Amino acid sequence: xxxxxxxxxxxxxxxxxxxxxxxxxxxxxxxxxxxxxxxxxxxxxxxxxxxxxxxxxxxxxxxxxxxxxxxxxxxxxxxxxxxxxxxxxxxxxxxxxxxxxxxxxxxxxxxxxxxxxxxxxxxxxxxxxxxxxxxxxxxxxxxxxxxxxxxxxxxxxxxxxxxxxxxx
Length: 168
Known about the structure:
Layout: H1 5-87, E1 132-136, E2 142-146, H2 150-155, E3 159-160
């Protein structure tokens, strides 16, 4: 015997509502995922554009700074070269070609500063007994110091006076 309509109609309406709700929910989740993916693509494109802009900005800043400092760098390099010549430094590079001195290099190749100073690498002759060396102290005073004690005073900041004669 067939069931009366009143008995199964509420169940059918509930089942239809659940199926319709599931379809709408599925469609909404798919749409939300598409929106999120679109947002992430746009954000990634923006980040790439921003990184490229910042990279070019930093390159321009460096180029501008280098351009503004180039006269001072050239002046310093020229002065270093002149000082090197005055001190008798060998300005020849490893291949024998002369190079300009550009500040203090981080690594000194064999045969470059300070080994090429006149007398460098040669054993020092022992000072004659009673010999003195004129040294200028950090306070500016100049004194004759026994030659065997000169290393102690130069380690404390004293410098030899150029043109001074060594007494006995």
